[in-house]
């Protein structure tokens, strides 16, 4: 399968106001200044607690989508805030940090207070090349000591899909992915 070029994919209406990066990608709302690896702390909290889409900054109080590695999805946690479905799906198709397995993003892309010791202990830190989109009605935001994350229960999952290098390869439009499928993805992406 040939990965679609980013120009072949329609930009979601909610993202059209975002400026372009020097590489021609839409610059996500969360970016502080011009370094795409450094999220804005205030926006992080707004997105986690006030229903702001992490990618476009628009209001998103209906269906919230977390983009995570398989391990985090299996644990029902995300270190990053949620997005609109359309914004998350667009990013899953075009964002080089998500579709290139070797792209090192996680550790470099987290807010300053996340570094090393502040990493959620049970969450994976490597970019696995496979990502899970988890659609939930709501989540809770946990800030225990220095570790911040969103957490959800399996019963809150509206839809879940597995993506590999920009392509959707498994999807349950009515709830969580089958446990064995998710467990296989975790095995493939953790050492
Ligand atoms: Zn959005």
Describe the structure.
With 191 residues, this protein is an alpha+beta fold. It has one domain (12-189). 24% of the residues lie in helices and 24% in strands. The chain has helices spanning 41-50, 70-75, 85-94, 96-99, 106-109, 179-189, and strands spanning 31-32, 35-39, 64-68, 77-78, 130-136, 140-144, 147-151, 157-164, 167-172. A 4-stranded antiparallel sheet has the order 3-5-8-9, with helices on both faces. Strands 4-7-6 form a 3-stranded antiparallel sheet. It has a two-stranded antiparallel ribbon with strand order 1-2. A hairpin with a 2-residue loop joins strand 8 (157-164) and strand 9. It binds zinc ion. Zinc ion (ZN) is lined by residues 14, 53, 55-56, 58, 60, 83-84, 87.
Mean model confidence by pLDDT: 83
Extract low-pLDDT stretches: 103-125
Percentage of β-strand residues = 15-25%
N- to C-terminal distance: 27 Å
Query: Care to count the β-strands?
Result: 9
Q: List the ions, cofactors and other small molecules found in this model.
A: zinc ion
Strand order of the largest sheet: 3-5-8-9
Share of residues in helices: 10-25%
Total of DSSP H or I helical runs spanning 4+ residues: 6
* Tally of discrete structural domains: 1
Structural class: alpha+beta
User: How do the SSEs run, as a string of H and E?
Assistant: EEHEHEHHHEEEEEH
Instruction: Please give the radius of gyration in angstroms.
Output: 15 Å
The major β-sheet equals:
4 strands, antiparallel
